[in-house]
Amino acid sequence: MKLSTAASAFLSFGIDVAFVVVFVLIGRASHREDLAGSINTLWPFVVGLAVGWVVARAWRSPQALVWTGITVWAVTVVVGMLLRAASRQGVEVAFVIVTVIVLAVFLLGWRALSRLFRRRMSRA
Fold this sequence. Notes:
The chain is 79% helix and 0% strand. By secondary structure, it is mainly alpha-helical. It has one domain. α2 packs across α3. The relative contact order is 0.14.
């Protein structure tokens, strides 16, 4: 079943948001921090994700790995870190490195798996 362009964009944005939420929850849990502060950690990255979607015009090809995925990932990290710094949240080097890696795995990973799945389905 092929989704409409709008449905595909909506679903893809939802997947991206879900992975950003998972990133924040895993991070907070790994530091044994309460989940109540998760919104404080989450909002800079959700804003960064939204900016990334606009910059990449991700709704045009939301599952594309190369332009959409890389742009969304990079902008999410950069804007998220800038907003964290502006709001006096931590931007230690170790946190930046972990953020870059984990969000790459999440935001690029699901797109790569989707691409692989679509290729296999087209061969069947």
